[in-house]
Amino acid sequence: MRLINAPRYTRHVTLAEELADRFRERAAGFDETVEFPHRNIEDMRESGYLAMTVPEELGGGGGDLTDMVRAQERLAAGCGSTALVVNMHLSMVGQMARNWRTTGDAKAEKMLRGVVDGSVFLAGATAEPGHSLVRSTGSVATRVPGGYRVTGNKTFGTGSAVMTHMTSMAVDDEHPDGPRVLIFRIPADTPGVRIKAGTWRTSGMRATLSEDIELDDVYVPEEAVFLTFPVGHLDGTLLQTLWGWAMPSFGAVYLGIAVGALEQCVRDVVKRGWQSKAFVQTTLTDCEVLVESARAVLSRAADEVMGNSLWTSMSVQEGMSRVVLAKVVGTQNAVSVVDRVVQIVGSSALRAGSLYDRAQRDVRAGTMHPYSNADACELIAATTLGDSVAPVTPPLRSTLADSAQRELATSG
């Protein structure tokens, strides 16, 4: 079914649809050659899409997570790899914007204005083999005068091909209060940061070119560290930021890939005159139920993040469980939709380079995308059973001021 949007969401979704129409024509080529979609990034920069989550008073689009979830679904219907690359950037920009609204931080404002003028593109490098996203890391931070020296190896460097700044993490084992995770943001051209070309060899989301990133004795100044918490803890501030923004928007991207395949399937059904086939009708109905169910859960999660209830009305573990559940629903339903679409389309869906072939490969990446659905199931089950999975660190600050401001803007 067509995505219906309230007036405040229309401009972002309309722009996403316009871009998706353009990107759809290029997607197969980028996928086949494993080429990063630089043309798409430039189109998004010129159109203002890269600044969607920058506050309007700083020259941006003024969108929040609820806008982003809707727009990213539509963008991914055109090119999933492009949508995933920009998802990292938009999410981090939105988190920074929310912090700026609350604190007025001058450094954040400067970077947000850089997003608007096109000089800043943010990416993340936190995932590592054998480590659970943002709960553990093998990278080591050694204290030196004025900051730290960091060494480690990161995987899934999505956006590394165009990033100007990267967020990463390491452990300070020598902290006087015990080992602590440090989360920091540094320029991508910092000495010792190396993108390891040729490491991205995968069947899905090929055009993201998410190469491994090596940190070799990288100097991280003290002021670049924007969050620390004890190793092994569930951190409330990460729920407000990385977890809260990333999980629903990841789910939206993978759902959008499935929606794109479903929309093409409907066009093909009409072209073939199969509208009256019972199996087609039943299967398309199943697909619509799956899509609308996922949209509802993802939208609810985004609203709860922006409304603060995930950390004001429930525990940090409950809040984290709730946002990863949204990602699980979005990605699992996406896989189910594409599998059903393929049953309708038949053998032509196996044609290499087709939209269906690409969708089958791409949506499956969503179930493994950190925070993986396997890890998510353990967290959700433990929370349901009332079991604590780890000690908890409460949020550093409230974002209620931001919520109140948004409430006033919406009602006005």
Architecture overview:
By secondary structure, the protein is α+β, with helices and mostly antiparallel strands. It has three domains: 7-121, Acyl-CoA dehydrogenase/oxidase, N-terminal domain (Butyryl-Coa Dehydrogenase, subunit A, domain 1), CATH 1.10.540.10; 140-230, Butyryl-CoA Dehydrogenase, subunit A, domain 2 (Beta Barrel), CATH 2.40.110; 234-411, Butyryl-CoA Dehydrogenase, subunit A, domain 3 (Up-down Bundle). The protein is built from twelve helices and ten strands. The strands form three sheets. It has a four-stranded mixed beta sheet, covered by helices on one side. Strands 2-3-7-6 form a four-stranded antiparallel beta sheet, with no helix packed on it. Helix 7 packs antiparallel against helix 9 (316-345), helix 9 packs antiparallel against helix 10 and helix 9 packs across helix 11. The chain is globular, with a radius of gyration of 21 Å. Residues 400-412 have low confidence and may be disordered.
